[in-house]
Amino acid sequence: MLQKLEKMDRRIIYLVVFLSLAIPLIWPIGLPISVGPETASLYKFIDSLPARTPVVISFDTSPGGYGELSSGAIALLNHLAKKDLRCIGMGFFDTGPSLMQSALANSLYKGKTYGTDYVNLGYVSGGENAISAVAKDIIAKFPKDFTGKSTSGIPVMQGITTMKDVSLIVTVSSGTPGVAEWIRQVGDPMKVPMATVLVAVNIPNMTPYLNAKQLYGMIPSMKGAAGYEALIGMKALGTSGMDAQSISHLAILFFVILGNVISYASRNKPGSAKGGGRQ
Predict the structure, then answer these.
(1) For 37-234, which CATH class?
(2) Partner of 220 at 20 to 30 A CA spacing, among 36, 120, 196, 209?
(3) What is the mean pLDDT of residues 24-48?
């Protein structure tokens, strides 16, 4: 048995690791995961909002950052859709609105009515200055939505003129403009609750805003998305991604331990070199 294990075809190891990654991505298992307080706080805040409450989602990210943020963004959209909240999308990265279209198409909003339940207003250039201008007059800065329709006639925008008319703003953020700019221009001066979906590398930078209550919560990277999915009772990208990471790590750890056991047993079997020295 030991000799067979010593001569194991390395392709078997590759196959096991591949399957440990692929299977959970296709069929999420839902392994237990701890939910951070910042994620639970955001969930509780959104869950307390009455139906038809307007929420702004700003996709302030590029395709490079969206790969890490997509699971959290879609989990958030799913919760908003389940709560029947009005979703008002926009972006201050030029690629943001197109990424939002992809997220909406992969969320529960795909079964809802565009213009009545959700809208994608599009992109405004200018970074922090643009955020400030939009906050003061949304319709003036977005006269038409992402599809070219007149914003003033869209039912989902009824009663919404400035950012003071919404109950929550969430920035899906991987750079600048992002969380800090939104807090400076909207969160603090207009007293509008802020939250974020953000990449893991920016978590330390955002923690002071959480401690100061300038952020009501956040979904940090894929782990945060998996926790949020657990709270809303759905298994999606975050759950499958964390399952794949956990199981593949266990598979690799198993082979590391197995290799060390075989090495130790080989050194001590009859006929081997004493002490396991090189030959």
Answers:
(1) alpha beta
(2) 120
(3) 92
